[in-house]
Design goal:
This protein has seven helices and ten strands. By secondary structure, it is α/β, with parallel strands linked by helices. The protein has a seven-stranded mixed sheet with strand order 3-2-5-8-9-1-10, with helices on one face. A three-stranded antiparallel sheet has the order 4-7-6. α1 crosses α2. The two termini are 18 Å apart. It binds 6-phosphogluconic acid. The site of 6-phosphogluconic acid (6PG) has 16 residues, from β4.
Length: 235
């Protein structure tokens, strides 16, 4: 049965969610660098992780040991303000010393099909990722996976006609999103509450297929209000 991960924390505000997420990212980074001398993180798109990225920009870290990937991207010019890569660059990456060769935006400017094929080569060579971040849309989509009926095999897929603009996108596929040591899911805002409730009650949403049972889910009280864990604390 598709269900919420066991480790679900409800925090009062989006700022609290960002602060906790930042602490988790740093803890995972330091553990990975200690054990494997490299930390591979997959970034989520959308607005929700932006505050976490801003907080990470202020952290003191061995940035030379970080390697950055994305879960999905919008097929827009590489410097377009609507790109997930551009949001992370502006909020965080342009302010820290991660070597340029270790920052891997999805080349979505090439078009969905070619970009998906290109990124698949890189992704297959770098798994398992140490940490993978995910958000969720009001309809229960995650990354750029808007349905559960796509190509089950390709590690990275081209998405055409996505219901959330722009229609042309590239996304890591379900199995690739699960091929990591740890998943961190961030969901804030009252508009996400119905999908979270549906997920909690077994709905076959893309988010439910992408998120493992051992993931960490951070929710603010607004998003969690229609679920039976609306009170800030541990679910
Ligand atoms: C994108 C994202 C998408 C996002 C959700 C939530 O490119 O749009 O990858 O999956 O995470 O739509 O978006 P918000 O965080 O902006 O609500």
């Amino acid at each position: 049965m598709l269900m919420l991960p066991a480790n679900c924390k409800v925090l009062e505000s989006p700022e609290d969610v960002a602060g906790q997420a930042c602490r988790i990212v740093i803890a995972e980074a330091e553990a990975a660098i200690r054990e494997r001398r490299m930390f591979r993180i997959v970034l989520a798109g959308g607005r929700t992780p932006q505050r976490t990225y801003q907080m990470l920009a202020g952290m003191v870290q061995d940035w030379s040991a970080w390697e950055i990937f994305w879960s999905d991207e919008r097929c827009l010019p590489s410097d377009h303000a609507g790109r997930n890569s551009r949001m992370a660059q502006d909020a965080w990456l342009s302010q820290v010393a991660i070597p340029a060769g270790q920052i891997h935006p999805i080349p979505a400017e090439l078009g969905a099909t070619l970009a998906a094929a290109e990124y698949a080569k890189l992704v297959l060579d770098r798994q398992p990722f140490d940490l993978l971040l995910l958000g969720m849309g009001e309809d229960g989509h995650t990354a750029s996976l808007f349905s559960t009926s796509g190509d089950p095999v390709a590690p990275v897929i081209a998405v055409h006609g996505a219901p959330k603009p722009p229609g042309e996108r590239v996304s890591l596929n379900f199995e690739t999103l699960r091929a990591c040591r740890k998943q961190l899911v961030l969901i804030t805002g009252a508009e996400k509450s119905p999908a979270l409730f549906a997920w909690q009650h077994g709905a076959s949403l893309p988010i439910a297929h992408a998120v493992r049972n051992d993931a960490c889910l951070l929710v603010d009280s607004e998003a969690g209000r229609s679920t039976n864990f609306a009170v800030p604390g541990h679910y």
